[in-house]
Amino acid sequence: MIIRTDSNHKDFIELVKQLDTDLAERDGADHSFYAQFNTVDKIKYVVIAYENDKPTGCGALKAYSPNIMEIKRMYTCPDNRGKGIASKVLGELELWATELGCKKCILETGKRQPEAIALYQKNGYSIIPNYGQYEGIENSVCFEKKLK
């Protein structure tokens, strides 16, 4: 089951804590740089995946420009990886972005997150030059996908 909510949902807050712990380990000294762009207060568009009433994954949309949404805070609990949950969350986010009139989704992930890179490529995202705050950041990989 997948629900749409916002960043005040308790399950989203808990999943993001797990995500931040994982990223702190992967990013090491770079973590504080990325953390400043990953605040979750006041995010209007959040998707949470559940399996047997237990939250298993999440993702969010944040307006980047009038026709572009940025995918943020994608996470799947380690015990639930490899089950297609992240692709389902991503698909729901893309559908929501389309319903909001957006033409494209963009996102940033880190080179130390090969699973994330593989997920986005598998779901039709193309690597683009690093945008905004990620320009010139060696560890960042940025992607985009045009929506139908």
Description:
By secondary structure, the protein is an alpha+beta fold. Helix content is 32%, strand content 33%. It contains four helices and seven strands, in the order E-H-H-E-E-E-H-E-H-E-E. A seven-stranded mixed beta sheet has the order 1-2-3-4-5-7-6, with helices on both faces. Strand 3 and strand 4 (68-76) form a beta hairpin. The two termini are 24 Å apart. The mean pLDDT is 91.
Strand proportion: 25-35%
Spans where pLDDT lies below 50 across 5 or more residues = none
Mean pLDDT: 91
Distance between the termini: 24 Å
Q: Main β-sheet, in a few words? A: 7 strands, mixed
Number of strands: 7
Q: How do the strands of the widest beta sheet line up side by side?
A: 1-2-3-4-5-7-6
Tally of separate helices: 4
Can you write the helix and strand succession as a string?
EHHEEEHEHEE
Indicate the overall shape. Answer: globular
Helical amount among residues, as a percent range? 25-40%
Secondary structural class: alpha+beta
Radius of gyration: 14 Å
Secondary-structure topology with pairs:
Elements: E1 2-5, H1 10-27, H2 31-35, E2 45-51, E3 54-65, E4 68-76, H3 85-99, E5 104-110, H4 114-122, E6 126-128, E7 140-146
Parallel strand pairs: 4-5
Antiparallel strand pairs: 1-2, 2-3, 3-4, 5-7, 6-7
Outline of the structure:
This protein is α+β, with helices and mostly antiparallel strands. The chain is 32% helix and 33% strand. It has helices at residues 10-27, 31-35, 85-99, 114-122, and strands at residues 2-5, 45-51, 54-65, 68-76, 104-110, 126-128, 140-146.
